């Protein structure tokens, strides 16, 4: 399709999309693939949320600001060359944004809420702020607690754990505080 668009540029400008039979056939094939991807994603969301709602009384999720997470990085002006810009990782960020948006986190949250309500369970959404930097044992919050993406080491009490496990325990603790220590 990209090659077909390049031919169209030569015939009438950048935005020209002449309706040739080959281009229409390629577009139809592309649309079939996109529909397949969407159906697989929706099927996964439905099956996963159904399983979670049936097997659990309480499900806890972080209230992530997806819109803020998927913003484009701001350009960094080069101090040595006025009018020029430094690399800001825009291509890598674009790939991450595409990945986040393709997983449909908000749709998953909505379907899970509906199914938890229907099955008599409860979905609790807690604020995401500092869950990965807070020590589960002593409650100390510091940026230095996260040694790496995978390792959590509290600078106050010395507690060590997997960073994701520590964050999950913090999220569960916040949910239990919000519900009064129970599940309902």
What is the topology?
Blueprint: H1 2-12, H2 21-55, E1 58-63, H3 66-69, E2 76-77, E3 85-86, H4 90-102, H5 105-118, E4 122-127, E5 151-153, E6 160-162, H6 163-179
Parallel strand pairs: 1-4
Antiparallel strand pairs: 2-3, 5-6
Description:
This protein is mainly alpha-helical and 184 residues long. It contains six helices and six strands. The chain has helices at residues 2-12, 21-55, 66-69, 90-102, 105-118, 163-179, and strands at 58-63, 76-77, 85-86, 122-127, 151-153, 160-162. The strands form three sheets. It has a two-stranded parallel ribbon. Strands 2-3 form a two-stranded antiparallel ribbon. Strand 2 and strand 3 (85-86) form a beta hairpin. Helix 2 runs parallel beside helix 5. The chain is flat. The N and C termini lie far apart (53 Å).
Tell me the distance between the termini.
Answer: 53 Å
Percent of residues in beta strands?
5-15%
Low-confidence stretches: none
Specify the oligomeric state: single chain
Percent range of helical residues: 40-55%
Main sheet: strands, sense, barrel: 2 strands, parallel
Number of strands: 6
> What is the overall shape?
flat
Give, in order, the helices and strands.
HHEHEEHHEEEH
Structural class: mainly alpha
Mean pLDDT, rounded to whole units? Answer: 88
Rg, Cα atoms, Å: 23 Å
Query: Helix tally?
Result: 6
